[in-house]
Fold these 3 entries.
Entry 1:
Amino acid sequence: MESKKEHYKRALLDLSNRKDLIPGIYNYCDRWCERCTMTQKCLTYLHEQEVKAESDSMNPDEANKNFWDQIRMAWEVTLEMLEEDADERGIDLSDVPDIELPKHVETPLEVRSRDYGTNIHNWMKDNQQFFAAKAEQLVTINDEASMIKYQDAMEVIQWYGPFIGAKVHRSHLELEQRQNNPDDEFNLYADNLGSAKIAIIAIQRSMDALSVYYSAFKEMEDEILKFLLELSQIKKQMLSTFPGVMDFKRPGFDD
Ligand code: SF4
């Protein structure tokens, strides 16, 4: 009988052989699967759903055990597949020389983007009562449309808060070396561009969502404006750091 690990690996391989899925679509998405328009083209999503379906049929303790098993298996299976791939290519992984990774020095833009995530999170938290009171008013007057609009805006701001800093950071990894490498045999700079593009998209969506609040909550105008200015400056600097970034084609989303 197939072991749990064999089952995990076979499910992954079956999915990776499906021609209707888009390879690498999950590399430069925003990982917001609940709002994604490409779930049925995405191996990561479909595989996660299979795992989730298994957990749904279990009691909570079994489901939690399954969760940790899946984390361990993901690592083991990835390693196994890497070794098989290396074998096929005649590469002995035990013979690969140690690579010294260059130390990454954070740029001011990375710090600023990460700080935006922390600040917006704290601001939302500090004003929880204000937002709750506003929601209550809308319920009282039965204004469901506004309620949904503000709720959607809040979700967008919350989702992208930490995401922007993470992607701005990734887009800066080994940036100088990659930008100044005309050969770029393995097309490594594409990873910087893809990360930069999704960061810029996230920034723009956050600005759109904050604008909804800006027009609705006059009491908070100054604070919201500060966040809008901050995002606008981060976006501007990203666009100038990554010339032509918006022409980068993210698999599945921009083809
Ligand atoms: S492409 Fe869509 S479904 Fe796949 S991981 Fe990204 S957000 Fe989730």
Note: The chain has two domains: 4-95, 108-247.
Entry 2:
Amino acid sequence: MRFRFLTASLLALALATGAQAADSLAFDKAWVRATPPNAKVAGGFVEIRNSGKNADRLLSASSDAAERVEIHEMKMSGELMQMRHLTEGLVIPAGQSVQLKPGSYHLMLMAPKKPIAEGQKVSITLVFEKAGKRVLEFTAAKQAPEASSEAGHHH
Ligand SMILES: [Cu+2]
């Protein structure tokens, strides 16, 4: 009897810990690039913060708005900007945040089914190794939400 009780307690503890781990990811500034008609791709951007004690990994993404969604990295290679498909996913280290932003890591919506209009909400499902599935609403914009104030410094 006592053993069974202990097992049940451990199971409850494991479930509670699992739920906590799932809460260790937070998301901010989720937006997608509004596209002209017939655009073949659209970039998706979001800041992912991992406040947990374990690293997690963004494994894949999908959306009803596009044929498929890939995880990409944009990087300078000599004088060329190159884009790489991260087939192994993207690690979100413990206690850190990773920014998916223009010119860096991003989600790439391949073959959007319809043009993405400014202000529209696009739902994208992110799949993490530990935290599982998260469905996020990305707001369509022509530029990064914080880019407008930065652009102001040029004038
Ligand atoms: Cu890309």
Note: Strands lie at 25-33, 41-50, 56-63, 66-77, 80-85, 90-92, 96-100, 105-112, 121-128, 132-141.
Entry 3:
Amino acid sequence: MATIITEECINCGVCEPECPNEAIDDGTKGGVDIYWIDADLCTECVGFHGEEACQEVCPVDCCIPDVDKKETEEELLEKAVKIHADQDFPALEELTNETSLFRNPERKNADL
Ligand code: SF4
Ligand code: SF4
């Protein structure tokens, strides 16, 4: 699942610099008046963090999984590898609770 930003967004901008994939912008790219996530670039932070970095910093908890865009851990890791062709990532079986939300039951959106 890519992450989406809901209408509760207060346009604080705190999430934008936290995204490892530069998937978030102020809405200009998405044609909306709140912050927006490019689903093609969102990897749910797999390979980088054990939770959605945007949701971790969002003061109103409005970065949530898009249930209409379900992706597996393997697909998200492959996406990260493609986006960051110059970087090394752990193999799928080497991901941990610190590098994949799939392995982190403590994350904010674990119940979604
Ligand atoms: S979940 Fe991670 S990759 Fe997706 S938009 Fe948020 S910070 Fe970026
Ligand atoms: S941190 Fe939350 S409220 Fe602030 S811009 Fe990002 S999505 Fe909107």
Note: The first strand starts at residue 3 and ends at 5.
